[in-house]
Amino acid sequence: MQHVGLIKNFTAEGLIEKRRLVTFGVKEGHVARAGAGAKLLGTTAIRGASGADVRVDVCLDGIREIEFGGVVAYGDPLTSDAEGRAIKAEPAGGVTVPVIGTALDAGGVGVIGHVLIRPGHITG
Asked: Which structural domain range is residue 103 located in?
């Protein structure tokens, strides 16, 4: 039996590609494509949102597919680049950054890998 996990439907505030990280929108019940340093909520799945006011499913837990935006190693903590792709979280000393979870695959830019979703923060 497949475990679907926790998926919630939101209204997009703009374009959000499939398998990208999302952040909280300006209005309650809305989400936006994450950017660098954004608070991270979850990921889109096999469908994104084509623009504002389009409904989009956001995966909030489990093991999910995500597009990498840089070189990622198995076990790396992941955060967002400017386009909502997952990159290795490497905060400078004393700096705290949001993370979506842990990489379960290695890969480079454009590779679709897996992330174990566990939102939080890490400090360098």
From this structure: 63-119
Side-by-side strand order, sheet with 86-88: 63-67, 112-123, 96-103, 77-80, 86-88
How far apart, in whole angstroms, are the C-alpha atoms of residue 53 and residue 30? Answer: 9
User: What digits encode the pLDDT tens for the residues 55-97?
Assistant: 999 999 999 999 999 999 999 999 999 999 999 999 999 999 9
Percent of the chain clearing pLDDT 70 (strictly above): 98
**Contact call for residues 116 and 63 (beta carbons, < 8 A):** yes
Same domain, 39 and 86: no
pTM value?
A: 0.94
**Checking DSSP bridges between strand 21-24 and strand 42-43, what pairing results, if any?**
antiparallel
User: Alpha-carbon Rg of the chain, whole angstroms?
Assistant: 13
Give yes or no: residues 50 and 70 share one domain: no
Structure tokens at 39: 């608070």
Interatomic CA distance for residues 64 and 70, integer angstroms = 18
Look-up: residue for tokens 């992941």? 78
